[in-house]
């Protein structure tokens, strides 16, 4: 079995279409289709089922997938060893993260990692959803809940905290908030309820606040609403130092703790390069959360 054919198979499995695989491989869809046809003929098995949703793995394709991924990991490890990259961080790496982490933590953490490792390129993909590492949407992903299924390795990155907050201009022109009951007279800012992609983001049950008057699926948009003096929201403590004038509200009564988890594909355990990046990322995120939360407590 040819490794190049397996590479094409993985691209179709992850992209779920010939055109998406072609873009990833930098070739046309017709070539991808011919290569898959040749591989299926060589193996004597149908690897994909075509549907209106695209190319889905057949039973035989599902059995081939872990072997193809293992071969990919082995090829990547061999390339690292032969190029001398195993002892340093080089090349391109993509990190998927929820937008709060991606906006307020990763820029400075990843900049420091790149400064220490010339030749390293980091791409940050900020999306309000769970990343699919099996489809290689990213090399590693940060999540707010620990996954319970899939061929993944998971490590704790950092604990972080959230509080109610509002801009000082809003607090100056509205009734005072001295207890949870006072929140009923204020506009609340939060997530769009049916677009909460992880149960750990459903904060409002813990606040005793009423319904959300202004909502977004983006943490960053919610923070900008708070910064604009539009109401009271639940915000990450590590974001407060980036928003002058935003103050914590009822910090002694409403305090929420959550955890960031770093998730990698199980086959990547063999990659010293990715393991070293994970270690550097963990150290950087923990230090930056601690630094920014200390500043927020002084506001």
TrEMBL record:
The keyword DNA-binding applies. Keywords: DNA-binding, Transcription, Transcription regulation. GO terms for molecular function: DNA binding; DNA-binding transcription factor activity. Residues 1-58 form the HTH lysR-type domain. Pfam families: HTH_1, LysR_substrate. InterPro entries: LTTR (IPR050176), LysR_HTH_N (IPR000847), LysR_subst-bd (IPR005119), WH-like_DNA-bd_sf (IPR036388), WH_DNA-bd_sf (IPR036390). It comes from the Bacteria. PANTHER family: TRANSCRIPTIONAL REGULATOR, TRANSCRIPTIONAL REGULATORY PROTEIN. Belongs to the LysR transcriptional regulatory family. This is LysR family transcriptional regulator. It comes from Rhodobacter xanthinilyticus.
